Amino acid sequence: MFDSRRAVLLAQLAEGQVEKALAENLLPLFREQYQALEALYQKKLTSRDSLLESGKKYTESRIGWGAAETRAQEVRDSLHQIDEEAQARTADKTHALAKESAERSDENRVLETQLNQLQSLSAQYLLRAPVSGTVESLVFRDAGGAVEPAQELLKIVPDSGERVAEVMVRNQDVGFLRPGKRRR
User: Fold this and answer.
1) How far is Cα 49 from Cα 51, in angstroms, rounded to an integer?
2) Taking the model in full, what pTM does it have?
3) Is residue 119 part of a domain?
4) Tally of domains within the chain
5) Can you give the pLDDT at residue 140?
6) In angstroms, rounded to a whole number, what is the distance separating the alpha carbons of residues 122 and 107?
7) How far apart are CA 184 and CA 181, in angstroms?
8) pLDDT per residue over 35-63, tens digit each?
9) Are 30 and 61 in contact (CB under 8 A)?
């Protein structure tokens, strides 16, 4: 928006400078012509109409030069105003973006705090076994219930290490058992 207005004003300024330069170049010629005709008129060698016509051209040229200068100054003022508006708009956008960035940073800090709190809370609901292995039996069956420290929840048979089993053998099968016999 500012660029298009600026381009139009720059074109007007260039046109005004051409008009002013033309008026500046013609002004001395019209003045000299007027002064020459005035001298001739004083000597009664030319008509009053010729003198007035030359005076009219000289006056129009002076006024045209002044008007061209005024228009050029107005265009320069408009260009300056557009530049100030563009700078003000840029400053407003920069301020708005900085404010939004600060708000987002504040939100991030709040969300990070909430995340830490939720992770801490989640860690309180998560129970970890001290060893890895196979669950033998589940002792605690109340879902969502509170657990006290050192309370037995389940029995785990460790994956590594020697396993000892306490088995009950029927009397009729005792005769078939020997030390070192493999199990089935």
Assistant:
1) 5
2) 0.47
3) yes
4) 2
5) 66
6) 22
7) 10
8) 888 888 898 888 888 888 888 888 888 88
9) yes
